[in-house]
Amino acid sequence: MRKTELYFNNLSKQKKQVMEKNGNNRKLRVCVATCNRADYSKLAPIMFGIKMEPEFFELDVVVLGSHLIDDYGNTYRMIEQDDFDINTRLHTIVRGEDEAAMVESVGLALVKLPDVLNRLKPDIMIVHGDRFDALALATSAALMNIRILHIEGGEVSGTIDDSIRHAITKLAHYHVCCTRSAEQHLISMCEDHDRILLAGCPSYDKLLSAKNKDYMSIIRMWLGDDVKSKDYIVALQHPVTTDIKHSIKMFELTLDALISFNKRTLVLFPNIDAGSKEMVRVMRKKGIEHHPNFRAVKHVPFDQFIQLVAHAGCMIGNSSCGVREVGAFGTPVINLGTRQIGRETGENVLHVRDADTQDKILQALHLQFGKQYPCSKIYGDGNAVPRILKFLKSIDLQEPLQKKFCFPPVKENISQDIDHILETLSALAVDLGGTNLRVAIVSMKGEIVKKYTQFIPKTYEERINLILQMCVEAAAEAVKLNCRILGVGISTGGRVNPREGIVLHSTKLIQEWNSVDLRTPLSDTLHLPVWVDNDGNCAALAERKFGQGKGLENFVTLITGTGIGGGIIHQHELIHGSSFCAAELGHLVVSLDGPDCSCGSHGCIEAYASGMALQREAKKLHDEDLLLVEGMSVLKDEAVSAVHLIQAAKLGNAKAQSILRTAGTALGLGVVNILHTINPSLVILSGVLASHYIHIVKDVIRQQALSSVQDVDVVVSDLVDPALLGAASMVLDYTTRRIC
User: Fold this and answer.
1) What are the catalytic residues?
2) In terms of pTM, does the model score above 0.85?
3) Tell me, what is one Gene Ontology molecular-function annotation carried by this entry (predicted)?
4) Which end of the chain is more exposed for a tag (fewer CB within 10 A), N or C?
């Protein structure tokens, strides 16, 4: 009972503060104007959020544009089905579907909107996106001194939509953007930093929980009873208003390719832009509406549409939905032409920018159909609406209405979220060692915000479950710590195929860890992209981004720990090799008759200089009562380790010193071979044993290396957790564009 009272008391205080700030103890009157089925899918989650807080907001809904046209599905009905009261319906579309009709439609909307806005008197108008109808809304509101909140500003696509979107940005007083790049574009356009909210796309709040619902009944309803999941295509293509003739030809080629591909296909009618009438004629000319493999529809409710694309074998066309929302499911997408050329995309999107032949589109279908990609969260993390509602509550109606522009020099990235605290772009980093499993939240600057450690289980099933559990807990904690997780990077021992995210062969330290797909279970669970690489490679990546290799074109990292690993950076890029076996530096042979190595060979660096090798030698000395010296002791149940050998050497044990010198010499000979083979500009020794070997290694280089490489510097890494930082760097440095 006490908790309930406390909750409502806090709610009452918050309400009072907002109302006092906005004057007259009244609620914030918000007008949401929606023009078509696409913008409603983004605005509806916000509208539901506003409706759920009647103590703070009054909601007015204005419907106009293609919502009210029968040929485009009378989509205003879905707004009514969602139980929203439509305050005003405005018929603003002049039919003709050409350039002149678009201009006339804007003019008609400008004539009708003033009466509506005078009657509603909203405190703020929410406008979405880049449609010509939205431009009329923003123009009317700006001229009538009504504050404008623009959703999805700052993005880049590739058509006239860009010009309209940026024009609305200049009219709007507040901005809600979806990606970091969009935020930077708004800042570059001189918008006020304090009035920009990086929230993510509102539709993602629904998308990220959508895939678990019953979907087969929806698939059967729209595509037929005989269709299976992942065995159909969704096609959605719109005219490009800056090149209508070419876009119609491209649509014709797309339909020809889909007919040839011979898979069941759901084709949605295009939007109302200039050229849409001609595209519908092409559909009818080819008999698409009566073809047994096609289902042509004017509109699919958004809840059902996302189920259809989530379980499709492929989506094709040029809709922004393909490059934005569909990435949340990892569904393959073929993006045709230039309409979305500037959009940020996940790796599930294959661009066919010059879609000028049927064969090229058909080839893309063969490449993409049926694949499954990692889920992408480029456009949102499922928490956009709470951020937007807080942002709305923070608006002070007593502030001057006149916009302020922040002209160059533009301040460094300081746009703020609703709590005026910048969310930290971060990665989840996983380090799978021989003993411990570690998960960390790592910021863009390489700061470990929080770290979790558990002993690593011995079986595959226990291990994978623990990884998932720790990552889920860390991702939840990241929200509380104001960190936005961009993806997951995994560092693990053994040979790794980073392209597929698969551990091919593990070291003997980690059992049941061969042919293990790490990417899929993590991506499916967290809805995040996942990268996997060998721990030695991750150490090199960590040095390249955060350590002493930063800015260097060529360097080598050697890890000295339980085993010996390494990574090679050449011309700023990590070298993996033809079979992902490059930089297995621990298995460079430095003696033909040396001790046995865990790899099956003998005389490897790892057989001399690894923690395992030192432990082996320490046990031998202990068994012969030659390890302990004055000042040392080993408890009865304590395992003898490399630590005891190092301690004995420091206390003057000559045999321990000799073993360490031999180990350091073996490592030094390996470094000499690296200098002669790769000729890097720097060698970085990393790991717990590096400081014990550095001087011996430098002595060996002076004695054994060619004079031309003796000046190459060898240093000890100053990074505390190179494996975790390297895993994080895979996420933080990743770029996702692919071109066909």
Assistant:
1) 535
2) no
3) UDP-N-acetylglucosamine 2-epimerase activity
4) N
